[in-house]
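Chapter summary example: a protein plus pyridoxal-5'-phosphate.
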Amino acid sequence: MSRSTELPGRFIPFARPSIGPEEESAVVEVLRSGWLTTGSRSAEFEARFAEFVGASYAIALSSGTAGLHLALEAIGVSEGDRVVTTPYTFTATAETIRYLGADPLFVDICEESYNIDPSSAAEAVRAHNPRGIVVVHIAGEPCDMDTLTDISRNYGVALIEDAAHAFPSLTSRGYLGTIGDAGVFSFYANKPITTGEGGMVVTDDDQLAERIRIMRLHGIDRSVWDRYLTARPKSWDYDVVEAGYKYNLPDVAAAIGLAQLGRARSFLELRTAVAKRYTEAFAERDYLIPPRSTPGHAWHLYILRLRPERLRIGRDEYIERLAELGVGVSVHYKPLHHMSYYRKRYGLTPGSFPRATDRFENVMSLPIYPDLDAESVDRVVEAVLAIGDASYCGRRTT
Ligand SMILES: *Cc1c(COP(=O)(O)O)cnc(C)c1O
């Protein structure tokens, strides 16, 4: 056994944001400016983000969850509606449907990826006449957007992309998040770029953008920035046109976002290099199924799948042993039909979505982030192979 598996050394965390001098000085500048809440930094973050992905509008928000909520609200989801989505995701994707009194209509994932199965989605659309479809680009791997946009167009159902994992992800149809009617990004601490907490909705639709902008800040028809810093007559005046929400992104956070946006392409290159190294190292082990490397993959997560019939230990024990060797891993996802709220409300069992259940039971997510150095990547590889090789019980060749 190699030295590094005997002596774990420093613990390699599962995730870690990359924060440097650009972010630090951007925040200090805002702190000294006299304007802390939503203002010029937030407006610039929106303009630069829209330009980056090639969308007509980008609206900065306090979280990705807020973005999903407002995008669903803007497409008209309301009490009693149904919205087709995947159980293989974080609860925010489905809970925001519930915020509006509507119900998620879950369909299973694909055989060959962790994304929603388009033919199951089409079947659900035909059978249940839903208000919308929310797809999630899991790990940053693009969903089958050709088929999904066809379904959306043919049945007149709005399509929302939960692109929380998918930045930046350039496909033949443009950046993920800009292909459906609206796309939602998250800037939570462990996401591809971060503002600590934050989110962004992008859209090309004037009416959706206007609705989201108004609902983001109390249903007020003008921004605070606009009211306080323009010398118009009656600049203090405003109207409330809806019972809106408090979902704006403060300038302190937006300043971090601007710095991170400038580094997003280099972050992607670094994550892609880690994924490549992992996949090369795991390719010759028939007890491991590395993730597909689809064009445009953003590599937010590296989801490694085990073949349980070829190993004497299960996924949970594999993860425990990795922790003993100083490697932090996680699981994406424990699907929503395994969570008591959704299970009880919709009468779901593990067998309701067999692919999602099977993947959940056999996957683990390895560390993948810009500041993961080459030595740490090597240590992760060695630990994964040392544990797997020692527990192997399958054929040596496939
Ligand atoms: C992180 C995440 C969200 C929510 O984003 P927040 O910014 O934390 O609110 C939504 N969907 C998915 C798939 C996520 O991973």
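Key point: The pocket of pyridoxal-5'-phosphate is lined by residues 63-65, 89-90, 92-93, 136, 162, 164-165, 186, 188, 199 (CB under 6 Å).
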